[in-house]
Design a protein that fits this description.
The complex is a heterodimer of chains A (338) and B (296). By secondary structure, chain A is an all-alpha fold. Chain A contains 13 helices and no strands. Chain B contains 11 helices and no strands.
Chain lengths: 338, 296
């Protein structure tokens, strides 16, 4: 256990430079680029006196280094600052919206793994057959489908034409807000109070967005699984398993696939980044009230502190995910030492 | 090096190389050709748009409002009575131009940095690698959104926003390759005969990196196409008046509830086809130039 603890600690320390670098880039981009937030907020014809006053109020008149140090100081105390447009802490809308994004991303991930791994394994098993070619073609084609277009097509087919699934939001408007107020994770909330009707409604709303995200990213998992499987199927223990007369299906899926999955887990961290990016577009297509929509809304309003806060939280989520993946890797492969 | 280059001999040797490659890599060859054909068709649209359509993409009097595809308007008309096919044809210029320019720009920045970092090593390498790895592991689209939002709409600005995202891709690739090429015997030989560092980098290391860069460039353009489309779809890309597939999709989204399928189907299909063309070209090239590159 001591080894595990020290491993986790080292791993967290290693994540700090990455978070720090992204923070700095975002901080500089938001301040050095053209488009002064105060001018944008007050309009081009505001008198200089008002502009100066507003700048002082927001601390934007100080040298950039001072602003940077102050920002970092606040951040260490987990304070993301105040919104420039609304009278609220930056953290407030983020806490409200983050669960929506996590729910969407996790279900998207499940869909893409659920499609990608079986297809990839099947393609590797019948390498160079028509099926293999078809699956590889599928992987390449879906990878090139813009997430938002996929979303629009699904909305058109299953929402507008067939009317089977809702095309926007996380719940039906008739659902009472009180059902969802606990954690923000609607699935958890509805299950905790045992409201199955509300749970069903939440799942029903998740279908199209998670399929959108999942199908588009499934292509990557098809490719990863196929490539790893091809490597694994060449190994001696597969030959040994075949020699012992174990049925081919079991050789491929029990002996092969389980080992091929290990490298896929290590790739999950990077794929998670893609999922988050895809989630922004999915949220914007399905009016899903998550972090991506928050980011875009605040960009239109030019609420710089909130924009920065949202990106900081994205950075933290990405680092946390890559930490989690490393730990998971160590857990499923006993050969990995802490 | 006194022999003069003769176009005929050059063409003949290229032809020989192509026919050898075609026989050796049958599937990959056809994948590459299919990609090239798709790209060629869309490039033709950008160069001779008037051959493909007689309508002006901004003509708000092209036909009725939101009419379904018909003989006069093969892809229908949009909410402002503009011809969707004309907008598809003219929109190709924007997305193709931005994607190619952005990919080239990031290659132009990423490759020298990668060469430098891999070759020099030491503190420069560690700092550059740390920064590039951080950017690389961050969702690229979010970074592009941040840049695009700050720079404001415009063709140049969107190109810059897309380019920033892909610098680490080239950096990491070229750095890794440089690190291994640096240890090759021929580099050691060059060093032994007293070649200067610049000469070693330019004449021994760089030419060996280029084959991989070509492949990644092609795949990268495919990615840049989708990033450009995404930025303009969410309204951060281009000023109104420039026909653009991503922008047309977000327009079509507004009228989706009324069932105007043609407004979203065609621009999206074009984005996919164009990205697919570059992906297929890249995959085919990868297999032919360096079979181990894309295995993982």
């Amino acid at each position: 256990m001591r080894h595990l603890a020290s491993y986790i600690l080292t791993r967290i320390l290693l994540a700090i430079p990455m978070v720090f670098i992204m923070l700095t880039i975002v901080f500089v981009v938001l301040r050095v680029m053209p488009g002064d937030p105060v001018n944008a907020m007050l309009g081009a014809h505001a008198p200089q006196r008002v502009i100066d006053q507003k700048k002082e109020e927001l601390g934007l008149n100080k040298p950039i280094m001072v602003q940077y140090v102050e920002y970092l100081g606040k951040l260490v105390r987990l304070d993301l600052g105040d919104s420039m447009i609304f009278k609220q802490k930056v953290s407030q809308p983020i806490i409200e919206k983050l669960p929506a994004t996590i729910e969407l991303t996790l279900f998207g991930l499940l869909v893409s793994l659920g499609i990608g791994i079986p297809l990839g394994a099947a393609a590797a098993r019948r390498r160079r057959s028509g099926g293999d070619f078809g699956i590889r073609l599928y992987a390449n084609v879906v990878y090139c489908i813009p997430v938002f277009w996929m979303g629009l097509l699904l909305q058109l087919f299953f929402g507008v034409w067939l009317g089977w699934f809702p095309v926007s939001g996380r719940t039906s408007p008739r659902m009472e807000a009180s059902v969802f107020s606990k954690t923000g994770f609607y699935i958890v909330d509805t299950l905790r109070i045992g409201n199955l009707a509300a749970f069903g409604d939440v799942m029903w709303h998740l279908v199209l967005p998670s399929i959108t995200l999942g199908v588009v990213l499934s292509g990557i998992f098809v490719r990863l699984t196929r490539a790893n499987m091809l490597d694994v199927l060449k190994s001696d223990y597969i030959l040994a398993a075949r020699a012992r007369g174990i049925p081919e299906r079991r050789v491929v899926y029990n002996h092969g696939l389980r080992n091929a999955l290990i490298p896929i887990v290590t790739m999950l961290g990077l794929q998670f980044s893609l999922l988050l990016a895809g989630a922004i577009l999915t949220e914007s297509t399905f009016s899903w009230p998550g972090m991506g929509r928050l980011l875009l809304e605040r960009i239109y309003l030019r609420d710089y502190p909130t924009i920065q806060g949202v990106i900081v939280v994205y950075t933290l989520v990405v680092s946390a995910m890559s930490l989690l993946v490393d730990l998971l890797y160590a857990a499923i492969d006993p050969r990995v030492k802490y | 090096m006194t022999a003069r280059f003769s176009p005929a001999a050059g063409a003949a040797s290229a032809l020989r190389w192509f026919s050898r490659a075609r026989r050796k890599y049958r599937t990959e060859w056809w994948i590459m050709i299919a990609g090239i054909l798709v790209i060629a068709l869309i490039v033709a649209m950008t160069v001779f748009p008037h051959v493909f359509t007689k309508y002006n993409p901004n003509d708000q009097d092209a036909g009725g409002q939101m009419t379904a595809p018909s003989r006069a308007h093969i892809m229908g008309t949009d909410n402002l009575s503009r011809d969707v096919w004309a907008r598809v044809v003219y929109g190709a210029q924007t997305i193709l131009g931005v994607a190619i320019a952005a990919a080239l720009l990031s290659a132009l920045i990423g490759i020298p940095l990668g060469l430098l970092s891999g070759f020099a090593g030491g503190l420069v390498d560690r700092i550059l690698s740390l920064v590039m790895d951080s950017v690389y592991s961050f969702p690229g689209l979010i970074l592009a959104i941040a840049f695009a939002a700050m720079l404001g709409p415009g063709v140049i600005n969107i190109t810059l926003a897309v380019a920033v995202v892909y610098i680490p891709t080239y950096f990491r690739l070229v750095r890794g390759q440089t690190l291994s090429i640096k240890e090759e015997v021929y580099v050691e030989a060059a060093r032994a005969i007293g070649a200067r560092r610049g000469t070693i980098l330019g004449r021994y290391v760089f030419p060996n990196v280029i084959a991989t860069v070509v492949v990644v460039l092609s795949l990268n353009i495919a990615d840049a196409i989708m990033t450009e489309a995404a930025l303009s779809y969410i309204g951060l890309g281009l000023p109104a008046g420039i026909p653009d597939w991503g922008m047309d999709l977000s327009m079509g989204k507004k009228f989706l509830p009324s069932g105007t399928w043609w407004m979203i189907t065609f621009p999206g299909l074009m984005i996919m086809l164009l990205a697919l063309g570059f992906t297929m070209l890249g995959e085919g090239l990868a297999e032919i130039l360096n079979p181990r590159l894309l295995e993982k």
